[in-house]
Amino acid sequence: MAPQPETRRGFFTDWNPLVHFAVLFLIHSFFSYGVFPDSLSFHHKIILEILVLVLSLVLLARFFPLQPLSKKGTLSFLTDLPWWAWLVPALIAVFLRFFRLTSFSPWPLFDESLFGFSALDLSRHGEGRWFYSLAQIPPLYIYGLSFLFRAGGVSLAALWFWPALLSTLSLPLVFLTARRLFPKNGVWLPTFLWAFGFWPLLEGRFGVEYPLFVFWELLTLYLWAVFLNSKTPGFRILSAVFFGLCVGTGFYIVLTWLVVAVTTGILFLAAVIEKGWPKKILVPAFFVPAFLVTLPLASAFHQSGHASYIQNSLDIGMGLPLSDLFLNPLSYLAGIFWGIPASLALGGYGPVSAGFLNPILGAFLFLGLTGFLDKQNRPSLFLPLLISAVCLSPAFLTKTLEFYRIIQILPFLFILVSKGIEIFLSGFPAPARPWILTTLLLLSSVLDITRLLGPQSRSAASPEVWKFKSIERMVAFQYAQVMNSKFGPGLVFTEFPEDSFDSSLMIATYPFNAALNPALSPEKAGWICLLADIRFQPYLKERFPDGRWYTLVLDKANQSHTWGIVPTKGQDRNTLEKWRRANEGFWGLSFQVLNHVEGESRQDILERLFGLYSLVQGDSILEGFYWTRLSKFLCSEVNERNAAWLSTIPVPHARNFDFLRIELATMYQKYGAAMARVKKYPQARLFFDRAASFGPEYGLPPALSRHLKNLLLTKKGERDPSPRKDPRPPTP
Which residues of 195-218 are buried (b: 16+ CB within 10 A; e: fewer)? Predict the structure, then answer.
């Protein structure tokens, strides 16, 4: 029987794709923007959303089944456009990635500050590391940022320029990969979605390692596509080698690259098996270079303590309630499609005011997923499900919500969205498809761009986000900026507080900070800005009576820092040079503390502290800064080696600060008791005498045994005057 001609029902050839899209769009819109009762908790809301979505998908598949996609090329009209028609969207996409580069967020997050601190130290001192900070961050992103600092200078603009550049470079990679993997008419759609999608735009706004992670993942997928399309055996082997090298190098970005490595390994093996290529040649050509590249990093990783951060991030074996193990992955799912509370989103690099995918793209994604579930595609469904499970595995393994841990799913999400758009357009006559697609893509782009520059940008300055930023340092920078605009470069001392591991102020002021920037002359600086513990404010006012001193208030209950502005006129240049060298010495100490491996001895930090004494000796306030840190470190590492060093260093100036008296007296008491227990009585007596110099109440501690007290006192012919306790019970 001859095939029947296609019939039309009104404007549409098939209503079913439109019904799917309309229902899913309404569901996503309500869950993204709808108002739920206040009594409904976030987790209850997630469960309700998922139940409604699953039920809707089942009913749609039952009553509105989708037909297999036509082979005629639903998107063939895209190839009719000349190349220059895409030039304007390309320029807009690049512009969006750099627009409001330094004003999108008013101040760097602690994580961004950490990367900037490490890159600045590398650019100045040239001493690289395998891992940075407690989070055990591999060095590749920091090396790239350090190169940018050397080439263009250190500033907040440079800190945020690096991720924006990586996000921009990802655009041609998406296009080149799509051209290798999809038919000609399917190249432009995923590229456009990536150019204007909310998640690809947002990830380039954070100065952390994951913009490089996304770029490298796209580069890896492109090399896989090159390998997949190789025509000759020789080129196939060569492309497998480069593919393996790229996969192995990804571990130098972040250790969670393991997820991408497993995914690409699955794709590689699937291609080799499907094509029937020789496994004995290609498998070693891929895996051996990947292994050799990672070997140096793996060797460094096996040093003691380097796995501590990963262990602390895992749910496995942590004894968490089963409800948490169940709800945490659902929170990730809600973040992709519907958004999460601002308090959770801002700490986990998540979206506010809807999910990563707006309701239009979310509806298209499930429409594309439904297309994979039809009977014709079920035999080939195993590979996409396996890849999805691997990409989303951190959601099931980690106990905290951080959306960068599942960002490797992003390219595959847009593949599903593209397929969903193709299925949707197949229900319309060919002449109407360009107009419908243009309308939907414009609406989607407007939703994403306005949300990025509106609610998401405003959230960066919201009260919740200041848990992850230093408002004190931002206020201090504003004062310093005014001084620079009026009087030119100055000396900005940022490293004297104990919590100086946040280097955001150092990076922000570096362009006009003659205390650190070697391109500026300290002798020509006209002013000083100084950040210090609030307890030093009275003494700083006495030392610098011409200065203006401000109390930086984090909140009403916490006045933590003082910020001073002092003219250099009339100041002794030798004293200023001493302060400059001390500030730089504390910078090195902060860097060493920041990169201390959890669980290891901090003796190396103490050794650096001991070496800093010569930089502060003789200046009472500098010694005060010094001893506020040293006393805490020495109390946590009481041993004979530290006691020998401590006994050689007098403290004539530190006792001038009332708030240090108790800390120093307690420290000397601890060392006196420790030395008495190991029978080093002269040292013990020295430490107890120093403790007593802060007040008679700080002499021999009551907890010390009477025997030890007498041994110490008889060195001077004294005896313990306290009465002996009669060991016999009282007479009734």
Answer: bbbbbbbbbbbbbbbbbbbbbbbb
